[in-house]
Amino acid sequence: TAARPILQVYTTVFLHGAGQGHVFMPAFTYTPPAAQPETSIVWDGLQGDVVVGVQGKHVTAAFQTPGLQLVGAERTFALHDARMRTDVLTKRRNRNRSDTSVRIGSMALTSHTETQATWAVTGAELRTTTTTASGTLQAVADVRLETLRLADAAYGSGTSHLEIQRLHLPALVRLLQALRVLQQAEPDLAS
Prior knowledge:
Elements: E1 8-13, E2 19-25, E3 28-30, E4 40-43, E5 46-52, E6 58-71, E7 75-91, E8 95-111, E9 119-133, E10 136-145, E11 147-150, E12 153-155, E13 158-168, H1 169-185
Antiparallel strand pairs: 1-2, 2-5, 3-4, 4-6, 5-6, 6-7, 7-8, 8-9, 9-10, 9-11, 10-13, 11-12
């Protein structure tokens, strides 16, 4: 039998400058040889769509995977029902807006010697909206968890909300540059 491609991308470019694409990665399982104590991978596949407007001024994308499992010698990490959506719009005069959401049905880390997960999350969701205009940034981020389990302790739903209003981007760039200079000037503590 012929080997299946690990990634397939179908792209259409329209004459007026817009385009669309479909991404598909089939499911696969990788089990290392018994002599090598590596991690086994069970990948349930990925598919997604990207649409690009004329001159790239509007981009939307949506990706989803049914799941992934990483099985090591001592632990297993499992991720189920992950989805990502984004919508980016560039308007005239450097006004930009981005809406992004990431949702995970569940994820857990389980030790092979334990009956319960070391930690587990169900219904994790992150939603962000950012807008830039006239050198300033406005941003809103919301995080929501339906349940969280840490060892034997279980917690109900929780939320977090963060807003940034009128952050002056040139000042932020100068701050980051100054921090980088300070970091490079520090003596190497490892030696």
